[in-house]
């Protein structure tokens, strides 16, 4: 690298690191305490997508070979059906499994972020969930400079 650019590799690496964001952020995440409830919701969502025309959308991507759409979860799982290799039901089950695995990878990735304030929608009703989210926000660093403790109670 040095011979080509005149800059050491360590300097290239240092320069490629992103600068600290100029924004104050508050991270709020949703995760299910009971993962089977999340998976049930994913399965129902896939069923709804099928009812709303996913087969037609996937077929269009399959026939035109649109690169990004053709590789998206929801399209590529249906290709064996279009090729006559599997039944539609088998492909739908594969789609559900792929989506559940993707959700698990997302949860694993986000769980590494210590800044996320987690809420569990399967353990609270909607008003309680929103109230807890607002309480977390009000107690966060974003409000610590402008509010005094106890000034606003939820």
What Rg do the Cα atoms give? 23 Å
Major pleated sheet: 2 strands, parallel
Helix content: 55-70%
Strand order of the largest sheet: 1-2
With helices defined by DSSP (H or I, 4 residues minimum), what is the helix count?
A: 9
- Mean pLDDT over the full residue set: 88
Shape: flat
In short:
The protein has about 150 residues and is mainly alpha-helical. It has helices spanning about 1-5, 10-15, 35-50, 55-65, 65-70, 80, 90-110, 125-140, 140-145, and strands at about 25-30, 115-120. It has a two-stranded parallel ribbon.
Structural write-up:
By secondary structure, the protein is mainly alpha-helical. It is built from nine helices and two strands, in the order ααβαααααβαα. α3 crosses α7. The longest helix has 24 residues. The model has no long low-confidence stretch (mean pLDDT 88).
């Amino acid at each position: 690298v040095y011979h080509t650019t005149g800059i050491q590799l360590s300097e290239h690496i240092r320069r490629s690191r992103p600068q600290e964001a100029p924004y104050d952020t508050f991270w709020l995440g949703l995760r299910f305490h009971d993962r089977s409830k999340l998976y049930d919701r994913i399965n129902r969502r896939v069923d709804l997508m099928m009812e709303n025309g996913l087969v037609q959308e996937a077929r269009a991507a399959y026939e035109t070979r649109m690169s990004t759409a053709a590789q998206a979860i929801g399209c590529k799982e249906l290709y064996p059906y279009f090729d006559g290799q599997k039944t539609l039901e088998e492909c739908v089950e594969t789609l559900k499994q792929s989506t559940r695995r993707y959700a698990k990878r997302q949860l694993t990735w986000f769980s590494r972020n210590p800044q996320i304030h987690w809420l569990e929608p399967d353990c609270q009703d909607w008003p309680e969930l929103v109230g807890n989210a607002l309480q977390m926000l009000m107690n966060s660093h974003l409000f610590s400079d402008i509010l005094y403790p106890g000034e606003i109670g939820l």
